[in-house]
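Job type: complex structure
Entries:
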Amino acid sequence: MDFFSRTGKMALGSRLRLLTARLTDDAATIYDVYEIGLKPKWFPVFFVLSEEGEKTITEIAGEIGHSQPSVSKIVREMTAAGLISENNDTEDKRRNVVALTPEGIEATARIKEQYSDVNAAVEDMIASSRHNLWEAIEEWEYLLDRKSLYQRVEEQRKIRESKKVRIVPYAEQYRATFKTLNEEWISTYFEMEEADYKALHDPEGYIIDKGGSIFVALYDNEPVGVCALIRMQDPAYDFEMAKMAVSPVARGKNIGFLLGQAVMRKAKELGGKQIYLESNTVLKPAIGLYRKLGFRKIAGHFTPYKRCNIQMAADLHTFAD
Amino acid sequence: MDFFSRTGKMALGSRLRLLTARLTDDAATIYDVYEIGLKPKWFPVFFVLSEEGEKTITEIAGEIGHSQPSVSKIVREMTAAGLISENNDTEDKRRNVVALTPEGIEATARIKEQYSDVNAAVEDMIASSRHNLWEAIEEWEYLLDRKSLYQRVEEQRKIRESKKVRIVPYAEQYRATFKTLNEEWISTYFEMEEADYKALHDPEGYIIDKGGSIFVALYDNEPVGVCALIRMQDPAYDFEMAKMAVSPVARGKNIGFLLGQAVMRKAKELGGKQIYLESNTVLKPAIGLYRKLGFRKIAGHFTPYKRCNIQMAADLHTFAD
DNA sequence: ACTAATTACATAACCAGTTATGCAAATATA
DNA sequence: TATATTTGCATAACTGGTTATGTAATTAGT
């Protein structure tokens, strides 16, 4: 199929569907030829029952990876075909315990030869290909269990978007941005406090002139995020990370992470050993970001901010870009 | 999925379907997130039109590997969404030439980022697996183009069945079988001739005592096929293969081939160089079998049988078991 | 002991594809 | 030039799955 070499991997779903349809069609013919009186789609249900005797609808569904209604339908069809008997045993009247009838059990014997022929044919195809389809599927199932394709695509999007982001040092032209971005989130979740007004009104005086720095994230050359590095007067912590703010329209581009990295890199450059921050646990994504940057919860440090209910610190020795 | 390690390769179709469904579900979410206003199932149609401009329904169907009605439906949906315009150009009023509208073309630009993110995510998954799913699918498409799964399973069935067949030398107890099996097919297609009556009535006298042999195929210890090796009085051909008959109930077990091999092996063993046979072209499967055994058409040899309209011979030097 | 929540399932409605079918337009053939 | 065949497509009906929903039976919570 030349088509898929042009589309690229984007069409993996389509390609898989086509291959599946092809095999399914052949499967129908094969089942016909062996005259066992089984429909291909019955196979998974048939198989678990032949191996494990009695089962409820939901148990079967879980085991074969189908939805419950799907198994419900298949069971009805197989009952009509005389292969399955329903409502066996069961004190619990909600449960529908199904099992193979004698005819069903008899079919298990007859299907063995078909089973071994199909198996041999597939093994043969696998043996004559360089890439093992069966194993590849298994690996994909495993990988998708750990992280869905959607999540993986999201990650790629972030990586791509973050390449468009530039982190630059503070300049006077960004004073307004520094103020408004911070006011925005603070007043959304909390209230502006005295210390906020001071720092946001005069960042040069309150942050930079005291040996700190501010970084600005540009997206398409527009400032969309800020973060400050503040020099502390504390024997344990040399620096504080503070006033991180990212415009809501620029979410999902990894900007917080890039700003945090810039701040920590600078702190390390200036000889810092520990970096400190304070925040509030209602800001879940922020806390997650801090953890990703290497911050861990600490306790008992003085803070002038009311809104602060969590304090964190990171070791700058172990911080690597 | 422990389930599939228990079923074995028989459930390849099921397993593929499950994986496909999983990816399809995620695809829907991904398309939503990128807000391009495209449904995943539109992608193949969208792609060909974006690459190649105008196309008819049937052309698209052929290219993307869908059925024509499928494309018909997709085109209707995309038209409703304003992405496609129908019935462009066309002197031939049967044809429905479709193309992207300006909005559709605009969407091609917007989808590029989604495209590259998905591509990167899939590449990443492929890179982190030992078995390349994409390549494996391609190989399967190739293999299935050459021979369907059904045909491959049939081959395996024959191999398995032919293992149950034993070829044994003639003994008196098989005289009746030798006669009836041959009478059966001869009188079905032709009429019994004088030479038939003689050989079938007294195989010992007419075949074995004259330096020939007869082989019998047993299936479950029942005789189901016979074939004779007759010594000839001819400078060109040492032996003739004749009176091959297989019971109709034992078809598809490769019995003819096994009998033919036994006869040719014996002929070679006896120092034969060329083996000859005569048949009739209405017996298509038989002629195919002879060709598979190495026989090729020759002309101009004398035959006492009216029903014979083709003569074939095989070189025994090149015959290998 | 009674009510609320949960569970097991069937049924209905939908989805993305398919095959079967019919019709109109175009082409081939006598 | 009239008729038969082929082509291109739409539509209908089916398939093997899904999600959504309703209901009866059971279990949990007060």
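Summary: Residues 24, 41, 66-67, 69-70, 73-74, 92-95 of chain B lie near DNA strand C (CB under 10 Å from a C1'). The mean pLDDT of chain B is 91.
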